Amino acid sequence: MEWETQIKPVLKYVVLVALLILALFPLWYAFALSTRGGVDVFKLGLKFLPYIQYNPDFSSWISMFVDWPVSTYFKNSVIVSAGTAALATLVGTLGAYGFARLEFPGREILFCTNLLGFLFPVVLITIPAFVIMGSLGLINTYIGMIVAFTCFTLPYCIWLLRSFFEQMPPRLEEKASLDGCGKFETFFRIVVPNALPAIGSIFMLAFLLAWHNFVFANVMALDSSRYTLTVGLKSMQSAIMTRNINVLMATITISILIPMIFFMFMQKYLIRGLAGE
Amino acid sequence: MTLTRKLKENLLNYLFIIPCSLLIGFVVLYPITQGLWISLHDWNIFGAEPNQFIGLGNYSYWFVGEGSDVFYSSLIKTGAYVAIVVPGDILLAIGFALVLNESLPARPFWRGLALVGYAAPAVVGGLIFYWMGSAESFGVLNFIFSNLGWWKGTSLLTTWPANHFVICLSKIWRDYGFAYVVALAAVEGVPKSLYEKAKLDGAGVLCRFRNITLPQIKGPLMVAAMIRVVFTVGMMATPWAITEGGPGYQTSYLGVLTYRIAYVDWNFGRAMAVGIVMAAILIPLILYWVSRQTRR
User: Fold this and answer.
1) pLDDT tens digit string along B249-289?
2) All residues at 6 or more sequence positions from A50 whose CB lies less than 8 Å from its CB, including other chains
3) Mutation for testing the B interface, residue in A115, A124, A146, A235 having most B CBs under 10 Å
4) CB of A80 within 8 Å of any CB in chain B?
5) Mind listing the pLDDT tens digit for each residue in B183-195?
6) With contacts defined as CB-CB under 8 Å, which chain B residues touch A213?
7) Does residue A16 belong to the interface with chain B, where contact is any CB pair within 8 Å?
8) Which of A89, A127, A218, A222 should one mutate to test binding to chain B, selecting the residue with the greatest count of B CBs within 10 A?
9) Cα distance between residue B97 and residue A80, in whole Å
10) What is the pLDDT of residues B18-29, one digit of tens each?
11) I need a surface site. Which of A58, A164, A216, B249 has the fewest CB within 10 A?
């Protein structure tokens, strides 16, 4: 048997299919459980193939919006994630450009300081942040959550955007400054419009980072009116009777599918962004 | 004259980085210093009594006091957690990256699909594996383990080390995506000509992997592994969703323990102390990564 012509062409598909089944099974598991109505949740045991092994019941997909406050969780997640991403990309773009292109004393040390929050354990920051936000009366508010969430999204934005700006050819900016544009004018008129695709994809990454966060959201939200999707899911898990597990699983399925759609459509940008290039 | 002009230009340049630096100062640096201060107190979060300064009392509670059993067991378990999760991440990532670097029909689609775990919020990764490991009729991990004879009992989640193993699986599933994108970028960057040459020299496939692919992707993967160590220790959502650190303190890894002491026991002083010890362990890795990002 020849590796190049006979083994490899077959083996690569076998490995790919095996790996993808492993990777996709948990999502499929959640989806399959969401389609079991009522007592079927238990009765069907290890049958996970709707239509083939059993008749699916999609009532949980309606029930989660009607009987459970999932739409509130969604709304909160969208508001907080969009707000965080907007604040982080706005401030981050300005900062990243400064760190990439401009010269001033203490630049690298300030840059390092700005990156610190990316790897620093968030759970540790939540404790003093809870005290600080509490004294400012910002607990359980959207503003408080948005500001707090920048502690892990902003460093990420600055890090990715700086390397993007460094790779951007400086010709346009040089031309603009020869034409007499000031730094800010060059930045807003020339740099930002040219960098919009990158800024857009980094907005998405910051959005996802905020969307996925549990620990800070859980600390900042005191009651279910401010629960984000992740916090809401955990509280559903505690509140749910096993009989209602299909509702929980339906919510879980959407919480994965939405970022998944992002990944599919923006695969190229996002993969580059996630890899930190 | 030139001095003032230089000063003016510097000031103008600082305007770009002042907003983000102020925000970072407020949401990262100030809380960290405040946290150090909290760790020196018997901190009363509900404000009924004033916070009492107790020096290193919270630290001695964990290192030599009543909390030492919990603390040292948490430390060891965190090690056992990282030792399974990070290599698992990296191996899975290399596997995916190698296969998805081959020519395949609709390759971008499969590449995106392989990110499924990373699309899931960390807490959701935990919740799914919670039910997989549960003793319910659909607890698929429970079923597999008991049929393989690895497990005799009711639920995987109530006994050490079965619960630890379920948590590790869940964490790997949810997090390998990061190492995977790094590995994919690295594998793509290996020049094709190297393989062609090696083939002409008669090098076998394993030989090519060991001598060409591996040396080329080792650097980026080491950095990815380092980041994964920091995140595995520091993040608590996945294990929290599965066992909430229990039963007892069995699965209270350092991140989980910090969270639990803070928001279940509401003892901010002790939580901060254990958290700062965790940060102290991670700080060399964090600083190493941060310093790599600078240009000089």
Assistant:
1) 999 999 999 999 999 999 999 999 999 999 999 999 999 98
2) A32, A35, A56
3) A124
4) no
5) 998 898 888 888 8
6) 121
7) yes
8) A127
9) 33
10) 999 999 999 999
11) A58
